[in-house]
Amino acid sequence: MKNWALLGIGFLAQGLFSARFLIQLVKSEKAGKVLSPVIFWQLSLMASFLLLVYGTFRQDMVIVGGQLIGYYIYIRNLQILKVWNSFSAVLRWFFLLLPLFFSLHLLLIAHYDFSLLVNNPEISSVLLTWGTFGQAIFTLRFVVQWHYAEKKRKAEFPVAFWYISFVGAILIASYAIYRKDSVLFIGQAFGIIVYLRNLMIHYGKANTSRQPYLYRLKKIRLFLLMLFTGLALFFNLGSWSVTESSEARYAEISKEILTSGDLLHPQLMGIYHYHKPPITYWLTAVSFKLFGTSPFSARLFLQLSALILIWLVYKIALLFFNNTNQAFLAAMLYASFPTLIIGSRALTTDMYLTVFVLAAMYYWFSYCKKQNPILLVLCYVFIGLGFLTKGPVVLIVPAIIGLFQGLVQKKNLGSWKTHVIGLILMLGIGLSWFVYLFLEDARFLNYFLFKHTIQRFATNTFQRGQPFWFYIAVLLGTAFPWVILLFKQFPRRRKDFRNNGTLLLMWVLLPLLFFSLSQSKLVLYILPIYPGLAIGAIYYWEKLKPAQHKIWERFQSVYHTILMIALLSLPLIDARISLNYKYYFIWFILASLLVTIQQVNIRKSDRTIIAAFIFTLGLTCMSTYFLSQNPGLINDTHRVTDWISTHEQAERRVYIYDKRLPSVLFNSNLQVISVFDGDESLNRETQFQQDQTWKTQLINLKSNPEWITSSAPHRSIWIVKSKKKLPQSDRDFSWQQLTEIDGWKIVRLIKK
User: Fold this and answer.
1) CB 214 within 8 A of CB 603
2) Quick one: how far is CA 438 from the chain centroid?
3) Are 37 and 27 in contact (CB under 8 A)?
4) What sign does the dihedral 442-443-446-451 (CA atoms) show?
5) How far apart are the first and last CA of the chain?
6) N or C, which end of the chain has less CB nearby within 10 Å?
């Protein structure tokens, strides 16, 4: 059997094993006592057969020996529960005889060497003994359970079952570590938690509460939400390098700030880079200082920003609803939007901008409710910080909200003195960097205000043009079906134009319209509207009837199913996509959890949002394996620089043809020289350079076409896009291709 198919069977089996205990634990939590549901034994039987296949082909006696016993114990428990006879006679005999037929096939037809189960050269005798002992104890738990069930004539778990499970899981998990078997280890690591919790339930007091399970965790549920989200966000975070072009650019600028100590004049590869204000660079440089220069450090504060955003959504929703459950659901729904993944996977300004925007909104709403002038001042302070992050775009959402509340809802917006103090602080913080550079060079005003603000909005100067409906498609893809719910429900309640539902709709609709009119469009530009979308969706969600909840839940389930099938089929869609077994394992776990949540007896309104949240957590973890396994598709050049560093150790200088690749500089200690030959992205603004040293790092072949012949070093190393043609060889030089990696050719210049 092929290795990928074998691993798929193993992961599916472990997914079913995990799902059975998850269902059992949830049902036990609800009842306040340890239960043994029918579905536990049904999933156990299916998983046991799959793991029997896995262990046999893996030639591992430890796995095979344990499953043969457990398989028939599961069947016996189904008999005690009087469920077994509900299956047809054909199906019952199929399950009874299939393991035996399978073994006979291996023995008599396939000539399987069963001695390998005992004498496996890959496993030492000591390790084999340790694993066998652990599996024996692990199997013994079901023997004990079977004896108990036969004695009581009930398919229940004795307390000894959980003690034995815990000890056996520890032994097998340690065996899996030495065996380097991820299937075994992950399954047992999850089990250890379940066994301990069942013991706690057994010895604890029965919970007689009739409230939904979600409510019984309300004291810690926000903490748990942020904990699980944080674990997913930080999972495998540094497994891929910085990507071109935005993330690599921001990371390299931050690295150069840390190296030079110049906080006010950001530079990219020796050229001043004033496209964006400096807060993103400063935060990233601090991360590099504290944790070292790495892709993980570059993204570290992004993950913390995502957690802060979830907390702020909760706090703002609490001000709107004055209800902790609705506020929690809004925070969970916000955490389920895939835009949070997109924003946290690559270093840009947008996550930090959204934090400052939302913090400003929180203090604004708090001020409107409490009328404390300090809160209003803090609102202005965070707007100023947002201005120092991405410029005047920070004003869009706060301005809309402020005008709506002042002009439409007729709220008291406070004294003019407080606003003046706030404005002074906002302008002092937000304009500080701009004023400093303007005083150095008056041309900076025109540079930033017109070229990087007005031109970005009105023209396609930066080649980011998209059709008007672009953001509508983005919202449908990242917030389905919640965006439809928000816009569908509003017309039915439009009679009260001054209510908070209208305010939340304006939070989404007007910035969406503004950014849709812009000629420059990127997905993350609309990131600040998603908190309003989450809160607004919950505002209307709680007003729906249970029958309507069921309809919307089905919409979401269909959406999740389609996406999961697409994720599973990615290599079939594009042959360039490479995915390892860990990606599919996360897929199996995700599918198991989504099926499990449907078996849990909680409110449909809660369950729908929990399912959305679980789905996004799975996507977050899966994304790390996709990004790490496909460097060529995400413009990750670390394998290119690794090859040069390994095979060309004497060469410390590398030339990039007609591209600007800051990732090469970030990933290595090489001296990087860009050779401009028509790509306008390399035609940098150099009017602020104080000398001509930058020309040594950016060669312009358009103004000096003979440079390769006259000045380029013999046997120098060049990096060029695979489909890009190098300058035509002539009698003076030629190109020697050394290798091709992830869509990049590495060539050597040979001078004759």
Assistant:
1) yes
2) 39
3) yes
4) negative
5) 54
6) C
Indicate if the pLDDT at residue 484 is higher than 60: yes
Integer-rounded Cα Rg, in Å, for the chain is 30
What is the rounded average pLDDT of the residues 133-144?
73
Q: How far apart are CA 62 and CA 49, in angstroms?
A: 15
Residue 54: other Cβ atoms inside 10 A? 25
pLDDT tens digit string along 164-196?
888 877 777 776 666 666 556 666 776 777 888
With pLDDT > 90 as the criterion, what percentage of the chain qualifies? 27
DSSP string, 398-426: HHHHHHIIIIIS------HHHHHHHHHHH
Phi–psi pair at 410, nearest 5 degrees: 55, 40
What is the rounded CA–CA span in Å between residue 149 and residue 592?
Answer: 27
502-519 residue pLDDT tens = 888 888 888 888 888 887
Contact of 294 with 331, CB cutoff 8 Å: no
Report d(CA 188, CA 177) in Å as an integer.
Answer: 11
Which structure tokens are listed for 4?
A: 């990928």
pLDDT band at 135 (very low <50, low <70, confident <90, very high): low
375 sits in which H/E element: helix 373-390
Residue 117: band (very low, low, confident or very high) from pLDDT cuts 50, 70, 90: very low
Residue 101 burial by CB count (10 A; 0-12/13-18/19+): exposed, middle or buried?
Answer: exposed
Q: Find the helix or strand (DSSP H, E) in which 747 lies.
A: strand 744-751
pLDDT digits (tens, 9 = 90+) for 571-624: 888 888 888 877 887 887 788 778 777 766 677 778 889 999 999 999 998 899
What is the per-residue burial (b if ≥16 Cβ within 10 Å, else e) of 483-510?
bebbeebbeeeeeeeeebbbbbbbbbbb
Q: φ, ψ for residue 657 (rounded to 5)?
A: -90, 115
Length of the chain, please?
Answer: 752
Could you tell me the pLDDT band of residue 208, with boundaries at 50, 70 and 90? very low
What separation in angstroms does the CA of 658 have from each of 217, 310, 719, 727?
57, 42, 9, 11
Q: Are strands 717-721 and 733-741 parallel, antiparallel or unpaired?
A: unpaired
Residue whose C-alpha is closest to residue 79's, from 105, 28, 107, 45: 45
Least confident of 315-324, 383-392, 480-489: 480-489
DSSP H or E stretch at residue 612: helix 604-629
Q: Cα-Cα-Cα-Cα dihedral of 330, 333, 338, 341, to 10°?
A: 70
Query: CA-CA distances (angstroms) from residue 15 to 135, 301, 628?
Result: 19, 32, 23
Q: How far apart are CA 282 and CA 27, in angstroms?
A: 49
Closest by CA to 61, choosing from 4, 112, 128, 139, is 128
Tell me the longest C-alpha to C-alpha distance in the chain.
Answer: 94
Tokens of 384: 């100023």
Assign 218 to helix, strand or coil: coil
Q: How is residue 202 written in tokens?
A: 């057994």
Contact 498, 277 (CB under 8 A): no
Is a pLDDT exceeding 90 seen at residue 16?
no
